[in-house]
Every structure is written in C-alpha cells, then in structure tokens.
Design goal:
The structure holds 2 protein chains of 2 kinds. Chain A is built from no helices and 12 strands. Chain A is mainly beta. In chain A, the strands form 3 sheets. In chain A, strands 2, 5, 6, 10, 11 and 12 form a 6-stranded mixed β-sheet that branches. Chain A has a 4-stranded antiparallel β-sheet with strand order 3-9-8-7, with no helix packed on it. A two-stranded antiparallel ribbon of chain A has the order 1-4. Helix content of chain B is 0%, strand content 49%. In chain B, strands 2, 4, 5, 6, 9, 10 and 11 form a 7-stranded mixed β-sheet that branches. The termini of chain B are far apart. The relative contact order of chain B is 0.34.
C-alpha cells in the first residue's frame, strides 16, 4: 500500500525566512507521480507541482523549489523569502494507478504553514 | 483557465436528512473523482469514474452514499441519511488521463447538525 508522511504538523516562520516542508513516501511501484498542493483557508486545492519517478532533477519556480530524492523516498518543498500569502496547509500526494489511465492520489496529513508578518 | 465546478459551496443539514452534491468536470476529462476531507486530514478517495463507469468505489460507504455519472459528464454524490461523522469537505476532481491535468474543484463543505 502506498503511504505519504508529512511529519511536520504545523510550522511558523517570520516573513522573509526560508522554510522547508518535508514529505516522505512509500510505494512498491517503479513508476509513480508525486504532487504538492496548497490549500488556503477557502478550502480549494491549488496544484503546485507534479513530478514523475524518473525525473530526479530539482525544480525551481520563482520562490518555490522542490528536492526529489529517490534514495531517501523524499520530495521536499522549500519556500524562499516567505510571504504572508504563503500561509496555508500544504499537502504532498502520491499517485497510484488503479488501472490504465486511472490514478488515485494518496495524500499526507498536511503541514499548516503560518507566516508571521 | 478551465475549472472543475462544484455546488453548493456550503451545506448545512440535519442528521438523518438527505443531501446531494454536484460536480461538473473540465470539458474533455473522462475521469472524475470524489474525495472526502475530514478536518485536519488529507483528502481520501471515495469513488472514481471513467466516463459513466465506476472504476473504484472501495472506500464509499455504500449503505448511505451513492454516486452517479449518468452521461459521463457531470456527477452527483448523495448521502442518505446523513450522520454527524459525515461533516467534511467533499472535493471533486477530474483528469485528462492518469495524473495529467488532475484538477480539483473548490469543494462543498458539509456540516451535519
């Protein structure tokens, strides 16, 4: 069975500090996808990134960066120079193929990030 | 930008009443998912459709929950009778194929009193 662990339940940092959200996953599949979503207080899930298991290159998008390491089954997310608008709950998720073309996402329990002005 | 539409946004219902949620996926997305998110937890899959067929409903409490996607486009999730433990966010998602284009709607926040 697939599993995603986000050990950090809550994190608070002062604005402009860098912060890293940890994600550790378990899967027996050789092909899989990892996701990060942001959930602001309004409740919708905002897609941030999708990464497949064959692409271990780190990715940077503005102030966001992701570090994928298959050796440690981790897919960590770093926000540089944090801003108040980054305050939200962040979820890491792992896709599991139910059948061809059909994927189920297994989510972690989320990390609540609070940026203090 | 294309969106997954869900309604209502909020719903308050009394215990033992029936309640229904509606979802309209992104046009062209054959796969539709219903997830339930209990407060403080990550979303969990309830049911998945490929066109009008159910692909996975192993986590759907079938004694009280039902889901349909009659024409392979929009979908309805129903709970009857609602219980206090059903209070949660119900999220609909659709995808083009597999993990590609996986998009969530804004959700329906259900409170059972």
């Amino acid at each position: 069975a697939q599993k995603v662990t986000q050990a950090q339940t809550e994190i608070s940092v002062v604005e402009k500090e860098d912060v890293t959200l940890d994600c550790v996953y378990e899967t027996r599949d050789t092909t899989y996808y990892l996701f990060w979503y942001k959930q602001p207080p309004s409740g919708e899930l905002v897609f941030l990134i999708r990464r497949n298991s064959f692409d271990e290159q780190n990715e940077i998008s503005g102030r966001y960066s992701w570090n994928f390491q298959k050796s440690t089954s981790s897919f960590n997310f770093t926000i540089t120079a944090s801003q108040v608008v980054d305050s939200a709950v962040y979820f890491c998720a792992l896709s599991e193929a139910i059948s061809f073309g059909n994927e189920k996402l297994t989510f972690g329990t989320g990390t609540r990030l609070t940026i203090i002005p | 930008e294309a969106e997954v539409a869900q309604s209502p946004r909020y719903k308050i219902t009394e215990k033992s009443q029936a309640v229904a949620f509606w979802c309209d996926p992104i046009s062209g997305h054959a796969t539709l998912y219903w997830y339930r998110q209990i407060l403080g937890q990550g979303p969990e899959l309830l049911v998945q459709f490929q066109d009008e067929s159910v692909v996975d409903d192993s986590q759907l409490p079938k004694d009280r929950f039902s889901a349909e996607r009659l024409k392979g486009v929009d979908s309805t999730l129903k709970i009857q009778p609602a219980e206090l433990g059903d209070s949660a966010m119900y999220l609909c998602a659709s995808s083009l194929q597999g993990p590609y284009g996986y998009t969530f709607g804004s959700g329906t926040r259900l409170t059972v009193v």
